[in-house]
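S.,

Sequence below, as promised.
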Amino acid sequence: MDVMRYLGLDFGSKTVGVAVSDPLNITAQALEIIRRQREDKLRQTLARIEEIILEYSITDIVLGYPLNMDETEGERAKLSLEFKDKLERRTGLPVHMWDERLTTVEADEIMSEVGIKQKDRKAYVDMIAAQVILEGYMNYGKDNICRQ
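The prediction came back faster than expected:
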């Protein structure tokens, strides 16, 4: 049986939060934040994602899908779908879109619970959001994706 290993991504205008599943796909761990100078500069971001894929033997990518609260697609959702296409072309891996509404709120609550001070949370929020996205996907089950 092939072993699945997931990479969770929270794609933002200048950052990408990164999380990975454990080898048994029981938990997701926040890994890092990939930063870039400009929104349209993705080459180094994609190269770093490829390094992580190789390092962790990733088989599938879960990308946050930032729908509006009324379930419509805004500009960020469209940019995320474009990033999905770039990821699939560059890595050859399937990219699953996962509804990320309220993940930043949940990430903030997690950081509060573990005692991270409000002023320090900005440094962690993207990778914690990636962890929340990946956990949501893994907990829901890969056969019931909201959108692929």
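The chain has a mean pLDDT of 86.

Coffee later?
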